[in-house]
Amino acid sequence: MPEPAAPDANPNAGANPNADAGAANAATIARFYAALGRRDAEAMLACYAPDVHFSDPIFRDLDATGVAAMWRMLTSRGTDLHVVVSGITADAQIGHAHWVATYTFSANRRRVENHIDATFGFRDGLIVRHQDRFGLYRWARQAFGPLGALLGWSPLVQRTMRRQAARALAAWQAKDSSERAASR
């Protein structure tokens, strides 16, 4: 004869493992963006699997090392970063969120409000794939002003933006690696 459930136990707990996993994955997304809002890259990285991949219109394909460096770089530079997240949904395998990042672009001190749609893939409660989608031309108009409005749509200019971002990330990785090694 089975033992009776404890009086405060949820009789439906575990009844739908996909719903439970979806709720847990949605909570991971919420934790990720809360950490981004605090500019806490380490807490963000704790939401990722060790083999995570990230892509967006600027950083097209980052492995886990690149992802870690990107978030460390962006959170350290984004001193006035403000994040608003909405529309978080998830099931056992995928999740979605819309988020708005408002910040001062460090290269020229222009104000940017970037509207981003994110898609996540999950494995074992951690993010294994993260794709952000936003209008690169819209971002370039804000970040670079009249020059971005005039040329930001051009594939040549967009490739240049990607190359500059990749160089900045590589420089950050070299600096961050040497600082981390020195602190050991």
Commentary on this structure:
With 184 residues, the chain is an alpha+beta fold. It has a domain at 17-135: Nuclear Transport Factor 2, Chain: A. It is built from five helices and five strands. It has helices at residues 17-38, 41-45, 64-77, 136-151, 155-182, and strands spanning 48-55, 82-90, 94-105, 110-123, 126-133. Helix 3 packs across helix 5 (155-182).
Summary tags:
5 strands, single chain, Nuclear Transport Factor 2, Chain: A, alpha+beta, disordered N terminus
In short:
By secondary structure, this protein is of the alpha+beta class. It has a domain at 17-135: Nuclear Transport Factor 2, Chain: A, CATH 3.10.450.50. The protein has helices spanning 17-38, 41-45, 64-77, 136-151, 155-182, and strands spanning 48-55, 82-90, 94-105, 110-123, 126-133.
CATH structural fold name of the domain at 17-135: Nuclear Transport Factor 2, Chain: A
Radius of gyration: 19 Å
Helix percentage range? 40-55%
Helix-strand category? alpha+beta
Strand content bin: 25-35%
Per DSSP E runs of 2 or more residues, the count of β-strands stands at: 5
- The helix/strand series, from N terminus to C terminus, equals HHEHEEEEHH
| CATH architecture level-2 label of the domain at 17-135 | Roll
**pLDDT averaged over residues:** 88
Reading off the top of the CATH hierarchy, the class of the domain at 17-135 is best stated as Alpha Beta
| Uncertain stretches | 1-13
Q: Main sheet, how many strands, which sense, barrel?
A: 5 strands, mixed
List the helices and strands and how they pair.
Blueprint: H1 17-38, H2 41-45, E1 48-55, H3 64-77, E2 82-90, E3 94-105, E4 110-123, E5 126-133, H4 136-151, H5 155-182
Parallel strand pairs: 1-5
Antiparallel strand pairs: 2-3, 3-4, 4-5
